[in-house]
């Protein structure tokens, strides 16, 4: 079975749904090796599909589970209840539980890396290896993109992709259609604004800052960063690497969206580390 996302055929991949305490969660599964959860970053059109250039290559040696984070993608979110980092992180533990996984690898990009860092600090016994990709949480500052958020148009998504998704295999028109469809549930817009408000609140950013937690992360960790990251500067990556005992770090000549800006290099480095 192959899954088509943005014109890319991902072999032996399947879109699945699982019932959790908040409702339904979607994830994309491929491969049969060691279970490895991939967690995407912020963005109203984002979800497990963000890893479209990574799921296939990584699944050759790993069981890949690219999940829609709570409040994202095709599954259910909190439409009335307030969001918190506590819920967002525990969502990942519950995802392990419902799939019967006592221990997994965890790969997080940007916001997903922030959640993965908190997860590793709180629940190291549930992790085998950790990969932090341009992860957030180390700098207590607000992001303009969150403060000024407006739902993206299809044309805006298309232009964003042309900058951040670097592969001749991607059909940008088809992928823009796919991502734009994620934004068309009006009930989700208020919930998304609420999760952004929580995540961008300075008190929240101070309380859930990752720097004081880094020295207590005992999971073998790979830190992956783009040298030209304009969202989470390279100094945040260096701070992360220096703060986590025994961590390894690799950098690439790209910006913030490493999994899709430098997919071949990313897949090779992460695949080697996790294998």
Tell me about this structure.
With 275 residues, the chain is an alpha/beta fold. The protein is built from eleven helices and ten strands. The protein has helices at residues 55-58, 85-98, 111-122, 144-147, 154-164, 172-181, 186-200, 202-207, 234-243, 258-261, 263-274, and strands at 2-5, 8-11, 13-20, 23-30, 34-39, 62-67, 104-109, 127-133, 221-226, 248-252. The strands form two sheets. Strands 3-4-6-5-7-8-9-10 form an eight-stranded mixed β-sheet, with helices on both faces. A two-stranded antiparallel ribbon has the order 1-2. Helix 1 links the parallel strand 5 (34-39) and strand 6. Helix 2 crosses helix 3 and helix 5 (154-164) packs across helix 6 (172-181). It is globular. The two termini are 24 Å apart.
Principal-axes geometry comes out as: globular
For the biggest sheet, the summary is: 8 strands, mixed
C-alpha Rg, in Å? 17 Å
Ends distance: 24 Å
What structural class do helix, strand and pairing data support? Answer: alpha/beta
Key terms:
eight-stranded mixed beta sheet; 275 residues; single chain; globular; alpha/beta; two-stranded antiparallel sheet
Sequence-ordered SSE layout with sheet pairings:
Elements: E1 2-5, E2 8-11, E3 13-20, E4 23-30, E5 34-39, H1 55-58, E6 62-67, H2 85-98, E7 104-109, H3 111-122, E8 127-133, H4 144-147, H5 154-164, H6 172-181, H7 186-200, H8 202-207, E9 221-226, H9 234-243, E10 248-252, H10 258-261, H11 263-274
Parallel strand pairs: 5-6, 5-7, 7-8, 8-9, 9-10
Antiparallel strand pairs: 1-2, 3-4, 4-6
Helix pairs in contact: 2-3, 5-6
């Amino acid at each position: 079975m192959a899954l088509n996302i943005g014109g890319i055929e991902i072999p032996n991949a399947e879109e699945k749904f699982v019932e959790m305490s908040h409702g339904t969660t979607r994830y994309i599964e491929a491969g049969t090796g060691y279970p490895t959860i991939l967690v995407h970053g912020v963005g109203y059109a984002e979800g497990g599909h963000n890893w479209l250039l990574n799921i296939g290559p990584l699944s050759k040696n790993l069981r890949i589970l690219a999940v829609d984070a709570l409040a994202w993608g095709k599954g259910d979110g909190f439409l009335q209840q307030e969001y918190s980092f506590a819920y967002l992180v525990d969502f990942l533990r519950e995802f392990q539980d419902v799939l019967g996984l006592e221990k997994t690898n965890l790969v997080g990009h940007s916001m997903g890396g922030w959640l993965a860092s908190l997860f590793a600090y709180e629940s190291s016994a549930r992790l085998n290896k950790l990969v932090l990709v341009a992860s957030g949480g180390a700098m207590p500052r607000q992001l303009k993109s969150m403060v000024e958020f407006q739902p993206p148009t299809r044309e805006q998504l298309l232009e964003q992709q042309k900058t951040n998704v670097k592969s001749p295999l991607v059909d940008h028109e088809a992928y823009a259609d796919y991502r734009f469809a994620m934004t068309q549930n009006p009930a989700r817009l208020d919930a998304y604004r609420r999760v952004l408000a929580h995540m961008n609140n300075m008190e929240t950013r101070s309380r859930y800052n990752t720097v004081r937690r880094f020295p207590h992360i005992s999971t073998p960790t790979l830190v992956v960063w783009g040298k030209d990251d304009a969202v989470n500067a390279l100094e945040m990556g260096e701070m992360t690497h220096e703060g986590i005992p025994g961590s390894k770090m690799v950098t690439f000549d790209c910006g913030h969206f490493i999994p899709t800006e430098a997919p071949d290099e990313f897949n090779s480095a992460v695949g080697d580390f996790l294998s």
